[in-house]
Specification:
The chain is an alpha+beta fold. It has helices at 125-129, 131-134, 226-244, 251-263, 274-289; strands spanning 25-27, 32-34, 40-41, 45-48, 51-54, 58-63, 66-71, 83-92, 95-99, 106-113, 140-148, 154-158, 164-166, 170-173, 186-189, 193-197, 202-207. A five-stranded mixed beta barrel has the order 8-9-10-12-11. Strands 1-6-7-3 form a four-stranded mixed sheet, with no helix packed on it. Strands 14-17-16-15 form a four-stranded antiparallel sheet, covered by helices on one side.
Length: 290
């Protein structure tokens, strides 16, 4: 078997995207990025013989004269204003510890949540005693990044009705770099499900509910119709196959994969078969490029 590393290939082509290009270039470690020495070296790159080279596998991005490579697989770093999904890991004094797919567990303080009923008041001693009744270990929450400390600790907030505890749905973890950056993270898809594309790589799929019932601190035990559960399951497998083939995750790509899986008459369980995953992924890319 003849194997060649990217660093051993002839360096004849610059991989830097044209200024303003909508399609970032994918590079592997050792692959050339640019011959232009006027560009500044960013994360994921290094200089060799006055040539900028990729040190990780990922997408090349350019901001003015700065070139960086965003890895395909990375730990969530956090950015103020991000809408993310997390899982409660600990209940502490006046705060919850939350797993947000980052290097450290994030922190959600009692003073940074909207109390049940939308009450705008200071938290009391009674509220502190009832913290576990609001959120306990294992609960899923939709929150917003409020601040990032110098030591990398992410501080969270849930001060509006669109944030809070999640129930009756399924969670899927993918690489944060595959989630399309969008201000709107919560989408009611035409197929009858709501999807929250967390900036941290956690995607939550749930049946569509009225806006006033989106966020609550009580668990809904009503039975979900079988057709809705099938829709949620199909969406989950479609997102999984897109992520498996490193296709960017967005409402458009997810609905394209969903429609392709129905048009090709695949069963929900068949979407986990490697050959079916590849067929749907290829059909989705072709559909989106039309």
């Amino acid at each position: 078997m003849d194997i060649k590393l990217a660093s051993e290939l002839p360096r004849m082509r610059s991989m830097i995207p044209a200024h303003g290009s909508a399609r970032p270039k994918l590079v592997t470690p050792g692959e050339i990025i640019s011959h232009d020495t006027s560009f500044m070296r960013g994360h994921g790159t290094y200089m060799e013989d006055e040539i900028q080279v990729a040190s990780v596998a990922g997408f090349v991005t350019r901001v003015n004269r700065l070139i960086t490579v965003t890895p395909l697989r990375q730990v969530y770093q956090g950015a103020v204003g991000d809408t993310i999904i997390g899982r409660i890991t600990q209940v502490q004094n006046k705060r919850w510890k939350v797993d947000v797919n980052a290097r450290l567990d994030a922190e959600l303080r009692l003073t940074n949540i909207q109390l049940p009923g939308g009450e705008q008041r200071r938290s009391s001693v009674e509220d502190e005693r009832e913290m576990r009744a609001l959120l306990r270990e294992g609960d899923l929450v939709c929150v917003e990044v409020q601040k990032i400390s110098d030591d990398g600790l992410i501080r969270l907030a849930a001060r509006s009705t669109k944030f809070g505890k999640l129930s009756q749905g399924t969670l899927l973890a993918i690489s944060p770099s595959l989630v399309v950056q969008d201000k709107q993270r919560m989408h009611d898809l035409p197929c009858g499900a709501r999807v929250i594309f967390g900036a941290n790589g956690y995607v939550y799929i749930t049946p569509t509910v009225p806006q006033e019932q989106v966020s609550t601190y009580t668990v809904n035990f009503e039975e979900v119709p079988i057709e809705v559960r099938k829709t949620v399951g199909r969406l989950r497998n479609c997102i999984k196959l897109l992520a498996h083939h490193s296709i960017m995750i967005s409402p458009t790509s997810v609905m394209s994969a969903y429609d392709q899986s129905i048009d090709q008459e695949y069963e929900i369980k068949d979407l986990l078969r490697p050959e079916v995953m590849q067929d749907v992924a290829v059909a989705t890319v072709q559909k989106m490029n039309e």
